[in-house]
Here is the input.
Amino acid sequence: VQLVESGGGLVQPGGSLRLSCAASGFTFSQWAMNWYRQTPGKERDLVASLSSTGRNTHYADFVKDRFTVFRDNVNNTLYLQMNNLKPEDTGRYYCNPGGSMGRYWGQGTQVTVSS
Here is the structure.
């Protein structure tokens, strides 16, 4: 199993980023997927979840109406569109299948929101 996150970077408050997670080594289309965020010294927080079909989503309150999670089951890629970014969104973002696949993590991608 391999999960490769990308798309992070430095952005000013109010800006946007789109994160990607390229998945391989498992049947991506059959798994719900999650985005997590971690800041130094803290545990990973669940940011967003998406069902295997992409029809059902769940967002943490702190990102509702700003972030959108979606997927491409043909190309085995998960996305996180982040708009109106705030300094408190700074952290390392990871994708994860959850459930029995929850032990697999990528290297994450760093998002820094700062002026």
Notes: The mean pLDDT is 96. The beta strands are 2-6, 9-11, 17-24, 33-38, 45-50, 57-59, 67-72, 77-82, 91-96, 109-113. The radius of gyration is 13 Å.
